[in-house]
Amino acid sequence: MDLIISLIVLLTFGRGISGATFALLNKCDYTVWPGILANAGSSKLDSTGFELGSGGSRTLQAPPNWSGRFWGRTGCTFDPNTGQGSCTTGDCGSNQVECNGGGQKPPATLAEFTVGSGTQDFYDVSLVDGYNLPLIIDPSGGSSNCLSVGCVTDLNRQCPNELRFGNGSACNSACGALGSDEYCCRGAYGSPNTCKPSSYSEMFKAACPRAYSYAYDDATSTFTCTSADYTITFCPSSTSQKAATNTPPTTTTSTTNSSGTESGEVPMETNSSWLPIFSTGDSSKTLSSCTLLILTLTSFLFFFLLNS
Ligand SMILES: *[C@@H]1O[C@H](CO)[C@@H](O)[C@H](O)[C@H]1NC(C)=O
Ligand SMILES: *[C@@H]1O[C@H](CO)[C@@H](O)[C@H](O)[C@H]1NC(C)=O
Ligand SMILES: *[C@@H]1O[C@H](CO)[C@@H](O)[C@H](O)[C@H]1NC(C)=O
Ligand SMILES: *[C@@H]1O[C@H](CO)[C@@H](O)[C@H](O)[C@H]1NC(C)=O
Questions:
Q1: What is the annotated signal peptide range for this record (predicted)?
Q2: pLDDT reported for residue 267
């Protein structure tokens, strides 16, 4: 009986602080194999990769302070007997359906998150690493300026020849295809002041106004919402009229700040990497030490009651 009470206490405390629920939804008319990578210091979610048939969905729970990314792998074949295989786009190099800590091979459209802890979540869709399929993020149940963001457009159809990946199943970023410091925001171009949008990134930005089109595209690409849950939809176009009309009509967002964020809210810690890095609390450590404390207290209580 006491054990049960202890367990209830533990569960109640453990769930007291919520993180975010992620629902992955596949509206593509083909199978997508989502990949999930937790950033350093964040625990892995229930799955790091799985198969999601056309029309399918799956939800995953992330703890407070979790940060990481989601993307869709396409054209995967996994041997039904050994489970081994790979994907045409977004492959994570694990040779399995689970990515097990592997990140996406570019080009791939990314949905990136830093979950708060009763505080703001940060989220964005990034094409800095290229594009492989349309993807939007829809927040729900959150407070403040919670916009749907991402890329409804099929950029594979508009991809310039020099950026085309494979048979047209994905579109490289200019950095990925051409590799110069200027496109990659490296070397002399390694700061927001020197790395400017290119004609390629502007093409991405015009197609997907609320997505990162190059490394220093923060001002119109990072969004915040407090205590929300998120739906990540692959190929949203069929029912995404709302999101589509929400997106700013302008095609010159690189020089304007017409989009959803207030400039004061935009974290500017982006460094050499294509991945915007936000403050990353060590959530797993904090969580587990909290759990340990509760466990210790409840076992003391249990011990005490047993002996009395
Ligand atoms: C590209 O090739 C893959 C197999 O390699 C195939 O599944 C896919 O349908 C092709 N895509 C196009 C647009 O031809
Ligand atoms: C990025 O960080 C590295 C070290 O972590 C530093 O050497 C480099 O100057 C930074 N680049 C920018 C653009 O801040
Ligand atoms: C855009 O940003 C500039 C400088 O950051 C600011 O002065 C201006 O008021 C902003 N415009 C809008 C529409 O937010
Ligand atoms: C989340 O991070 C913040 C800031 O680092 C910290 O104060 C808070 O205790 C963390 N919450 C959890 C549940 O780990």
A1: 1-19
A2: 34
By C-alpha distance, which of 191, 203, 190, 127 is closest to 161? 203
User: Position 88: which residue type?
Assistant: T
Strands (E), the chain: 20-26, 33-38, 57-62, 67-73, 77-78, 85-86, 110-114, 120-126, 135-140, 149-151, 164-165, 170-171, 223-226, 229-234
Q: Give me the pLDDT at residue 21, please.
A: 97
Give the distance (Å) from ligand 4 centre to CA of residue 229: 18
The CA distance from 195 to 182, in Å, is 6
Looking at residue 185, its pLDDT comes to 96
67 CB under 6 A from ligand 4? Answer: no
Rounded to the nearest integer, the mean pLDDT of the chain is 81
Ligand 1 pocket, residue 286 CB under 6 Å: no
pTM over cut 0.85: no
Asked if residue 284 has its Cβ within 6 Å of ligand 1, the reply is no
Q: Do the Cβ atoms of 265 and 220 come closer than 8 Å?
A: no
CATH code given to domain 20-279? 2.60.110.10
- Let me know: does 165 contact 258? Beta carbons within 8 Å: no
Q: In this model, does residue 152 exceed pLDDT 60?
A: yes
